[in-house]
Protein backbone atom coordinates (compact mmCIF):
# COMPACT_ATOMS: atom_id res chain seq x y z
CA UNK A 1 0.00 0.00 0.00
CA UNK A 2 1.34 3.43 -0.89
CA UNK A 3 2.26 5.57 2.03
CA UNK A 4 -0.34 8.34 1.91
CA UNK A 5 2.07 10.87 3.36
CA UNK A 6 4.58 10.15 0.62
CA UNK A 7 1.85 10.21 -1.98
CA UNK A 8 0.61 13.67 -0.97
CA UNK A 9 4.18 14.99 -0.78
CA UNK A 10 4.84 13.72 -4.27
CA UNK A 11 1.63 15.29 -5.58
CA UNK A 12 2.61 18.60 -3.95
CA UNK A 13 5.95 18.48 -5.77
CA UNK A 14 4.24 17.60 -9.04
CA UNK A 15 1.85 20.54 -8.68
CA UNK A 16 4.80 22.82 -8.09
CA UNK A 17 6.50 21.48 -11.22
CA UNK A 18 3.38 22.06 -13.33
CA UNK A 19 2.94 25.53 -11.82
CA UNK A 20 6.56 26.41 -12.65
CA UNK A 21 6.01 25.28 -16.22
CA UNK A 22 2.82 27.37 -16.46
CA UNK A 23 4.61 30.44 -15.15
CA UNK A 24 7.45 29.89 -17.61
CA UNK A 25 4.98 29.69 -20.49
CA UNK A 26 2.84 32.61 -19.36
CA UNK A 27 5.63 35.01 -18.59
CA UNK A 28 7.76 34.28 -21.60
CA UNK A 29 9.62 36.14 -23.12
CA UNK A 30 9.91 38.98 -20.61
CA UNK A 31 9.28 37.70 -17.13
CA UNK A 32 8.47 41.04 -15.56
CA UNK A 33 4.88 42.17 -15.98
CA UNK A 34 4.31 45.59 -17.39
CA UNK A 35 1.21 47.63 -17.69
CA UNK A 36 -0.27 48.20 -21.14
CA UNK A 37 -1.04 51.59 -22.64
CA UNK A 38 -4.53 53.07 -22.71
CA UNK A 39 -6.50 54.27 -25.74
CA UNK A 40 -7.90 57.83 -25.97
CA UNK A 41 -11.42 56.45 -25.44
CA UNK A 42 -10.34 54.72 -22.24
CA UNK A 43 -8.44 57.79 -21.04
CA UNK A 44 -11.42 60.07 -21.66
CA UNK A 45 -13.61 57.64 -19.74
CA UNK A 46 -11.17 57.39 -16.82
CA UNK A 47 -10.82 61.18 -16.61
CA UNK A 48 -14.58 61.65 -16.96
CA UNK A 49 -14.33 63.88 -20.03
CA UNK A 50 -15.65 63.42 -23.56
CA UNK A 51 -13.36 62.00 -26.28
CA UNK A 52 -13.60 65.27 -28.24
CA UNK A 53 -12.56 67.22 -25.16
CA UNK A 54 -9.53 64.97 -24.84
CA UNK A 55 -8.69 65.56 -28.53
CA UNK A 56 -8.68 69.30 -27.82
CA UNK A 57 -6.69 68.91 -24.63
CA UNK A 58 -3.77 67.09 -26.27
CA UNK A 59 -3.20 70.27 -28.30
CA UNK A 60 -2.78 72.29 -25.11
CA UNK A 61 0.59 73.13 -23.70
CA UNK A 62 1.67 70.96 -20.81
CA UNK A 63 -1.06 68.35 -21.33
CA UNK A 64 0.45 64.87 -21.80
CA UNK A 65 0.65 63.93 -25.44
CA UNK A 66 0.73 60.15 -25.20
CA UNK A 67 2.58 58.35 -27.94
CA UNK A 68 1.70 57.62 -31.53
CA UNK A 69 3.67 54.55 -32.59
CA UNK A 70 3.83 54.08 -36.38
CA UNK A 71 0.36 53.94 -37.88
CA UNK A 72 -1.35 53.07 -34.62
CA UNK A 73 -3.53 55.42 -32.60
CA UNK A 74 -2.37 57.64 -29.81
CA UNK A 75 -2.00 55.83 -26.49
CA UNK A 76 -1.22 56.86 -22.94
CA UNK A 77 0.54 55.31 -19.97
CA UNK A 78 -1.08 55.32 -16.56
CA UNK A 79 1.52 57.89 -15.46
CA UNK A 80 0.33 60.14 -18.28
CA UNK A 81 -3.27 59.66 -17.14
CA UNK A 82 -2.25 60.81 -13.65
CA UNK A 83 -0.38 63.73 -15.19
CA UNK A 84 -3.45 64.67 -17.22
CA UNK A 85 -5.56 64.60 -14.05
CA UNK A 86 -3.09 66.92 -12.31
CA UNK A 87 -3.13 69.25 -15.33
CA UNK A 88 -6.93 69.34 -15.29
CA UNK A 89 -6.93 70.08 -11.56
CA UNK A 90 -4.44 72.90 -11.97
CA UNK A 91 -6.33 74.50 -14.87
CA UNK A 92 -9.94 73.96 -13.76
CA UNK A 93 -9.61 73.75 -9.97
CA UNK A 94 -12.36 71.11 -10.10
CA UNK A 95 -12.09 68.92 -6.99
CA UNK A 96 -13.11 65.80 -8.89
CA UNK A 97 -9.61 65.78 -10.36
CA UNK A 98 -8.24 65.42 -6.83
CA UNK A 99 -9.64 62.04 -5.83
CA UNK A 100 -7.16 61.38 -3.02
CA UNK A 101 -8.48 61.72 0.49
CA UNK A 102 -7.97 64.99 2.31
CA UNK A 103 -5.47 64.54 5.15
CA UNK A 104 -7.01 64.88 8.57
CA UNK A 105 -10.48 65.01 7.05
CA UNK A 106 -11.22 61.84 5.10
CA UNK A 107 -10.57 58.55 6.81
CA UNK A 108 -8.71 55.64 5.29
CA UNK A 109 -11.21 53.16 3.87
CA UNK A 110 -10.61 49.44 4.03
CA UNK A 111 -12.77 47.39 1.68
CA UNK A 112 -12.80 43.65 2.36
CA UNK A 113 -14.04 41.25 -0.31
CA UNK A 114 -15.31 38.22 1.52
CA UNK A 115 -17.54 35.17 1.23
CA UNK A 116 -17.03 31.61 2.42
CA UNK A 117 -18.06 30.27 -0.92
CA UNK A 118 -15.05 29.29 -3.00
CA UNK A 119 -14.87 30.61 -6.53
CA UNK A 120 -17.55 33.27 -5.98
CA UNK A 121 -15.41 35.97 -7.61
CA UNK A 122 -13.72 37.53 -4.57
CA UNK A 123 -10.25 37.78 -6.05
CA UNK A 124 -11.49 38.84 -9.47
CA UNK A 125 -13.67 41.56 -7.94
CA UNK A 126 -11.06 42.73 -5.42
CA UNK A 127 -8.20 42.90 -7.90
CA UNK A 128 -10.24 44.70 -10.56
CA UNK A 129 -11.52 47.15 -7.96
CA UNK A 130 -7.99 47.90 -6.71
CA UNK A 131 -6.78 48.50 -10.27
CA UNK A 132 -9.84 50.58 -11.14
CA UNK A 133 -9.11 52.81 -8.13
CA UNK A 134 -5.44 53.15 -9.10
CA UNK A 135 -6.45 54.13 -12.65
CA UNK A 136 -8.75 56.77 -11.21
CA UNK A 137 -5.99 58.37 -9.17
CA UNK A 138 -6.44 56.87 -5.71
CA UNK A 139 -3.50 55.55 -3.70
CA UNK A 140 -4.28 51.92 -3.12
CA UNK A 141 -2.90 49.10 -1.00
CA UNK A 142 -4.01 45.59 -1.82
CA UNK A 143 -3.56 43.06 0.98
CA UNK A 144 -3.66 39.44 -0.12
CA UNK A 145 -4.71 37.37 2.89
CA UNK A 146 -5.38 34.15 1.02
CA UNK A 147 -2.64 31.49 1.16
CA UNK A 148 -3.77 30.43 -2.33
CA UNK A 149 -2.26 33.80 -3.33
CA UNK A 150 -4.46 34.24 -6.42
CA UNK A 151 -4.35 38.04 -6.25
CA UNK A 152 -0.58 37.96 -5.80
CA UNK A 153 -0.31 35.74 -8.88
CA UNK A 154 -2.50 38.16 -10.85
CA UNK A 155 0.09 40.81 -10.03
CA UNK A 156 2.69 38.71 -11.83
CA UNK A 157 4.37 37.21 -8.79
CA UNK A 158 5.05 33.53 -8.35
CA UNK A 159 4.15 33.01 -4.68
CA UNK A 160 6.54 30.04 -4.45
CA UNK A 161 9.60 31.62 -5.96
CA UNK A 162 9.14 35.36 -5.64
CA UNK A 163 7.33 35.85 -2.36
CA UNK A 164 9.47 35.10 0.64
CA UNK A 165 7.58 34.33 3.83
CA UNK A 166 9.16 37.39 5.41
CA UNK A 167 7.40 39.63 2.89
CA UNK A 168 3.85 38.42 3.57
CA UNK A 169 1.47 39.52 6.29
CA UNK A 170 2.49 36.33 8.15
CA UNK A 171 5.81 37.95 9.00
CA UNK A 172 4.00 40.88 10.64
CA UNK A 173 2.36 38.41 13.01
CA UNK A 174 5.82 37.15 13.99
CA UNK A 175 7.31 40.61 14.37
CA UNK A 176 9.69 41.59 17.14
CA UNK A 177 8.21 43.54 20.01
CA UNK A 178 9.74 46.83 18.91
CA UNK A 179 8.60 46.60 15.26
CA UNK A 180 6.96 49.79 14.04
CA UNK A 181 6.06 51.64 10.85
CA UNK A 182 9.41 51.04 9.13
CA UNK A 183 8.96 47.28 9.47
CA UNK A 184 5.31 47.52 8.43
CA UNK A 185 6.13 49.62 5.36
CA UNK A 186 8.69 47.05 4.25
CA UNK A 187 5.80 44.68 3.51
CA UNK A 188 4.04 47.06 1.12
CA UNK A 189 5.62 46.25 -2.20
CA UNK A 190 5.14 48.54 -5.20
CA UNK A 191 3.63 46.85 -8.26
CA UNK A 192 3.89 47.75 -11.96
CA UNK A 193 0.69 49.73 -11.35
CA UNK A 194 1.71 53.23 -10.27
CA UNK A 195 -0.24 54.07 -7.13
CA UNK A 196 -0.99 50.44 -6.25
CA UNK A 197 1.09 48.61 -3.65
CA UNK A 198 0.66 45.00 -2.62
CA UNK A 199 1.22 43.00 0.53
CA UNK A 200 1.63 39.65 -1.20
CA UNK A 201 0.53 36.23 0.00
CA UNK A 202 2.09 32.81 0.06
CA UNK A 203 1.50 29.53 1.80
CA UNK A 204 3.13 31.15 4.85
CA UNK A 205 -0.33 32.58 5.60
CA UNK A 206 -1.62 29.06 6.13
CA UNK A 207 0.97 28.49 8.85
CA UNK A 208 0.13 31.91 10.27
CA UNK A 209 -3.44 30.72 10.83
CA UNK A 210 -2.21 27.88 13.07
CA UNK A 211 0.24 30.14 14.82
CA UNK A 212 -2.47 32.64 15.65
CA UNK A 213 -4.63 29.89 17.12
CA UNK A 214 -1.63 28.59 19.11
CA UNK A 215 -0.84 32.02 20.45
CA UNK A 216 -4.42 32.58 21.49
CA UNK A 217 -4.44 29.28 23.37
CA UNK A 218 -1.33 30.37 25.28
CA UNK A 219 -2.42 33.94 25.86
CA UNK A 220 -6.16 34.35 26.09
CA UNK A 221 -6.03 38.14 25.95
CA UNK A 222 -3.99 38.24 22.72
CA UNK A 223 -5.86 40.60 20.37
CA UNK A 224 -5.55 38.27 17.37
CA UNK A 225 -8.36 40.11 15.53
CA UNK A 226 -6.56 43.50 15.65
CA UNK A 227 -3.33 42.51 13.89
CA UNK A 228 -4.27 43.75 10.43
CA UNK A 229 -5.91 46.86 11.88
CA UNK A 230 -2.73 47.64 13.82
CA UNK A 231 -0.64 47.12 10.70
CA UNK A 232 -2.86 49.46 8.68
CA UNK A 233 -2.65 52.10 11.42
CA UNK A 234 1.08 52.18 10.68
CA UNK A 235 1.03 52.21 6.87
CA UNK A 236 -2.41 53.70 6.13
CA UNK A 237 -1.27 57.29 5.90
CA UNK A 238 0.21 56.63 2.45
CA UNK A 239 -3.06 55.34 1.01
CA UNK A 240 -6.64 56.32 0.32
CA UNK A 241 -8.11 52.84 0.10
CA UNK A 242 -6.99 49.39 1.24
CA UNK A 243 -8.49 46.40 -0.57
CA UNK A 244 -8.37 43.01 1.18
CA UNK A 245 -8.81 39.67 -0.53
CA UNK A 246 -9.74 36.76 1.73
CA UNK A 247 -9.64 32.99 1.57
CA UNK A 248 -12.94 31.18 1.09
CA UNK A 249 -13.49 30.16 4.69
CA UNK A 250 -13.39 31.48 8.20
CA UNK A 251 -9.85 31.80 9.36
CA UNK A 252 -8.09 34.06 11.79
CA UNK A 253 -6.91 36.23 8.90
CA UNK A 254 -10.43 36.58 7.54
CA UNK A 255 -11.52 37.72 10.99
CA UNK A 256 -8.71 40.28 10.90
CA UNK A 257 -9.95 41.51 7.53
CA UNK A 258 -13.48 41.74 8.88
CA UNK A 259 -12.21 43.76 11.84
CA UNK A 260 -10.06 46.13 9.84
CA UNK A 261 -12.76 46.73 7.21
CA UNK A 262 -14.76 49.92 6.97
CA UNK A 263 -16.80 48.44 4.11
CA UNK A 264 -17.61 44.90 3.00
CA UNK A 265 -18.25 43.62 -0.50
CA UNK A 266 -19.72 40.13 -0.72
CA UNK A 267 -19.58 38.61 -4.20
CA UNK A 268 -22.36 36.08 -4.84
CA UNK A 269 -22.98 34.39 -8.18
CA UNK A 270 -26.67 33.85 -8.95
CA UNK A 271 -26.95 30.14 -8.20
CA UNK A 272 -28.77 28.12 -5.58
CA UNK A 273 -25.57 26.67 -4.09
CA UNK A 274 -23.98 30.08 -3.83
CA UNK A 275 -26.97 31.40 -1.93
CA UNK A 276 -26.96 28.43 0.40
CA UNK A 277 -23.36 29.01 1.40
CA UNK A 278 -23.74 32.79 1.48
CA UNK A 279 -26.60 32.24 3.94
CA UNK A 280 -24.09 30.37 6.13
CA UNK A 281 -21.71 33.28 5.77
CA UNK A 282 -24.27 35.81 7.02
CA UNK A 283 -25.27 33.51 9.89
CA UNK A 284 -21.62 33.28 10.87
CA UNK A 285 -21.18 37.05 10.60
CA UNK A 286 -24.17 37.57 12.90
CA UNK A 287 -22.63 35.23 15.49
CA UNK A 288 -19.17 36.77 15.29
CA UNK A 289 -20.57 40.29 15.55
CA UNK A 290 -22.76 39.31 18.53
CA UNK A 291 -19.79 37.65 20.29
CA UNK A 292 -17.37 40.48 19.72
CA UNK A 293 -19.92 43.13 20.63
CA UNK A 294 -20.62 41.38 23.88
CA UNK A 295 -17.02 40.66 24.82
CA UNK A 296 -15.22 43.63 23.31
CA UNK A 297 -17.21 46.68 22.39
CA UNK A 298 -20.70 47.49 21.24
CA UNK A 299 -19.27 49.06 18.09
CA UNK A 300 -17.10 46.11 17.02
CA UNK A 301 -17.59 45.18 13.38
CA UNK A 302 -19.35 48.36 12.34
CA UNK A 303 -19.25 49.17 8.66
CA UNK A 304 -19.96 52.21 6.55
CA UNK A 305 -21.41 49.91 3.92
CA UNK A 306 -22.07 46.22 3.33
CA UNK A 307 -22.88 45.45 -0.29
CA UNK A 308 -23.57 42.26 -2.17
CA UNK A 309 -22.31 42.18 -5.71
CA UNK A 310 -23.73 39.73 -8.21
CA UNK A 311 -20.87 38.03 -10.00
CA UNK A 312 -20.64 35.70 -13.01
CA UNK A 313 -24.11 36.71 -14.13
CA UNK A 314 -25.35 35.11 -17.36
CA UNK A 315 -28.00 37.53 -18.56
CA UNK A 316 -29.21 35.01 -21.17
CA UNK A 317 -30.02 32.42 -18.52
CA UNK A 318 -33.71 32.77 -17.55
CA UNK A 319 -33.19 31.18 -14.13
CA UNK A 320 -30.38 33.56 -13.34
CA UNK A 321 -32.30 36.66 -14.38
CA UNK A 322 -35.13 35.53 -12.10
CA UNK A 323 -32.76 34.84 -9.21
CA UNK A 324 -31.16 38.26 -9.69
CA UNK A 325 -34.43 40.18 -9.74
CA UNK A 326 -35.75 38.20 -6.76
CA UNK A 327 -32.54 38.89 -4.87
CA UNK A 328 -32.77 42.58 -5.76
CA UNK A 329 -36.34 42.72 -4.48
CA UNK A 330 -35.41 41.06 -1.18
CA UNK A 331 -32.07 42.66 -0.41
CA UNK A 332 -32.97 46.00 -2.01
CA UNK A 333 -30.15 48.55 -1.81
CA UNK A 334 -27.81 46.05 -0.14
CA UNK A 335 -27.29 44.54 -3.60
CA UNK A 336 -25.33 46.63 -6.05
CA UNK A 337 -27.62 47.33 -8.99
CA UNK A 338 -24.82 46.64 -11.44
CA UNK A 339 -24.03 42.92 -11.77
CA UNK A 340 -20.73 41.63 -13.08
CA UNK A 341 -21.56 39.55 -16.10
CA UNK A 342 -19.86 36.29 -16.81
CA UNK A 343 -17.49 36.81 -19.67
CA UNK A 344 -15.05 34.37 -21.17
CA UNK A 345 -12.58 37.23 -21.29
CA UNK A 346 -12.13 37.26 -17.50
CA UNK A 347 -11.04 33.65 -17.82
CA UNK A 348 -9.00 34.30 -20.97
CA UNK A 349 -7.24 37.20 -19.28
CA UNK A 350 -6.86 35.17 -16.09
CA UNK A 351 -5.09 32.37 -17.95
CA UNK A 352 -2.32 34.81 -18.86
CA UNK A 353 -2.50 36.18 -15.29
CA UNK A 354 -4.08 39.45 -16.32
CA UNK A 355 -7.15 41.42 -15.42
CA UNK A 356 -9.52 43.12 -17.86
CA UNK A 357 -7.64 46.37 -17.21
CA UNK A 358 -4.39 44.76 -18.36
CA UNK A 359 -5.62 42.49 -21.12
CA UNK A 360 -5.27 43.33 -24.78
CA UNK A 361 -7.75 41.13 -26.62
CA UNK A 362 -6.61 39.45 -29.79
CA UNK A 363 -10.16 38.76 -31.02
CA UNK A 364 -13.41 40.66 -30.73
CA UNK A 365 -12.95 44.08 -29.13
CA UNK A 366 -16.72 44.42 -28.79
CA UNK A 367 -17.00 41.48 -26.41
CA UNK A 368 -14.02 42.80 -24.50
CA UNK A 369 -15.45 46.29 -24.26
CA UNK A 370 -18.79 44.93 -23.04
CA UNK A 371 -17.04 42.99 -20.27
CA UNK A 372 -14.88 45.95 -19.36
CA UNK A 373 -17.86 48.31 -19.30
CA UNK A 374 -19.70 45.94 -16.92
CA UNK A 375 -16.65 45.75 -14.66
CA UNK A 376 -16.32 49.55 -14.71
CA UNK A 377 -19.96 49.97 -13.74
CA UNK A 378 -19.59 47.59 -10.80
CA UNK A 379 -16.45 49.35 -9.65
CA UNK A 380 -17.96 52.80 -10.07
CA UNK A 381 -20.85 51.83 -7.80
CA UNK A 382 -18.43 50.64 -5.10
CA UNK A 383 -16.37 53.81 -5.62
CA UNK A 384 -19.57 55.80 -5.06
CA UNK A 385 -19.85 54.17 -1.64
CA UNK A 386 -16.36 55.40 -0.78
CA UNK A 387 -17.16 58.90 -2.01
CA UNK A 388 -20.33 58.97 0.07
CA UNK A 389 -18.31 58.09 3.18
CA UNK A 390 -15.97 60.98 2.41
CA UNK A 391 -18.99 63.22 1.87
CA UNK A 392 -18.34 63.83 -1.82
CA UNK A 393 -20.80 63.66 -4.74
CA UNK A 394 -21.67 60.02 -5.40
CA UNK A 395 -21.78 60.04 -9.19
CA UNK A 396 -19.15 60.60 -11.82
CA UNK A 397 -20.42 63.31 -14.06
CA UNK A 398 -18.90 63.57 -17.45
CA UNK A 399 -17.76 67.05 -18.28
CA UNK A 400 -19.03 68.55 -21.52
CA UNK A 401 -16.58 69.06 -24.39
N1 LIG B 1 -17.17 37.77 -14.44
C1 LIG B 1 -16.56 36.60 -14.67
N2 LIG B 1 -16.68 36.01 -15.87
C2 LIG B 1 -16.07 34.81 -16.10
N3 LIG B 1 -15.33 34.15 -15.21
C3 LIG B 1 -15.17 34.71 -14.01
C4 LIG B 1 -15.77 35.97 -13.66
N4 LIG B 1 -15.43 36.26 -12.38
C5 LIG B 1 -14.66 35.25 -11.95
N5 LIG B 1 -14.50 34.32 -12.92
C6 LIG B 1 -13.71 33.08 -12.85
O1 LIG B 1 -14.19 32.29 -11.77
C7 LIG B 1 -13.12 31.66 -11.10
C8 LIG B 1 -13.18 32.02 -9.62
O2 LIG B 1 -13.04 33.43 -9.50
P1 LIG B 1 -12.21 34.06 -8.32
O3 LIG B 1 -10.86 33.43 -8.25
O4 LIG B 1 -12.29 35.53 -8.45
O5 LIG B 1 -13.09 33.58 -7.09
P2 LIG B 1 -12.71 33.56 -5.57
O6 LIG B 1 -13.97 33.76 -4.83
O7 LIG B 1 -11.60 34.49 -5.29
O8 LIG B 1 -12.17 32.07 -5.40
P3 LIG B 1 -11.50 31.46 -4.07
O9 LIG B 1 -12.66 31.19 -3.17
O10 LIG B 1 -10.84 30.20 -4.54
O11 LIG B 1 -10.57 32.46 -3.53
C9 LIG B 1 -11.83 32.13 -11.79
O12 LIG B 1 -11.42 31.15 -12.70
C10 LIG B 1 -12.25 33.38 -12.51
O13 LIG B 1 -11.48 33.60 -13.68
MG1 LIG C 1 -9.79 34.14 -4.30
Shape: globular
The level 1 CATH classification of the largest domain is Alpha Beta
Average pLDDT for all residues: 89
Number of helices: 15
Protein name: AAA family ATPase
InterPro entries: AAA_dom, DNA_Partitioning_ATPase, P-loop_NTPase
Pfam family, one: AAA_31
Question: What is the gist of this entry?
Answer:
The protein is built from 15 helices and nine strands. The chain is of the alpha/beta class. It starts with a helix and ends in a 12-residue tail after the last helix.
SSE topology sketch:
Elements: H1 4-27, H2 40-47, H3 51-57, E1 67-68, E2 74-75, H4 78-92, E3 109-113, H5 122-135, E4 140-144, H6 150-154, H7 169-173, H8 181-185, E5 189-190, E6 196-199, H9 204-218, H10 227-235, E7 241-245, H11 252-260, E8 263-268, H12 272-295, E9 305-310, H13 318-331, H14 344-351, H15 365-389
Parallel strand pairs: 3-7, 3-8, 4-6, 4-7, 8-9
Antiparallel strand pairs: 1-2, 5-6
Residues 122-123, 146, 150, 245 line the site of magnesium ion.
Question: What does the model show?
Answer:
- By secondary structure, this protein is an alpha/beta fold.
- Helix content is 47%, strand content 9%.
- A hairpin with a 5-residue loop joins strand 5 and strand 6 (196-199).
- It has helices at residues 4-27, 40-47, 51-57, 78-92, 122-135, 150-154, 169-173, 181-185, 204-218, 227-235, 252-260, 272-295, 318-331, 344-351, 365-389, and strands at 67-68, 74-75, 109-113, 140-144, 189-190, 196-199, 241-245, 263-268, 305-310.
- It folds into two domains: 40-97; 109-389, Rossmann fold (3-Layer(aba) Sandwich).
- It is globular, with a radius of gyration of 22 Å.
- A seven-stranded mixed beta sheet has the order 5-6-4-7-3-8-9, sandwiched between helices.
- It binds adenosine-5'-triphosphate (ATP) and magnesium ion (MG).
- Residues 122-123, 146, 150, 245 line the site of magnesium ion.
Amino acid sequence: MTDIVEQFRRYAELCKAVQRKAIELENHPDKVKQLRRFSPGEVADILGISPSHLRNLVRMEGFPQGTIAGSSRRSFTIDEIHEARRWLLATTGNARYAPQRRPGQDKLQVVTFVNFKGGSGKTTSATHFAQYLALHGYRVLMVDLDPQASATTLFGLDPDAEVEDATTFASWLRRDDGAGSAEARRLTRPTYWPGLDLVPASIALQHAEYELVGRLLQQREYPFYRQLGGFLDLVGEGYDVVVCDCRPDVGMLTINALFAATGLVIPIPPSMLDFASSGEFFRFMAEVAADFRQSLSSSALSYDFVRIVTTKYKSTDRNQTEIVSWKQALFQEAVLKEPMVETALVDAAGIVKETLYEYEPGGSRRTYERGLAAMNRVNATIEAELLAVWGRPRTRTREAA
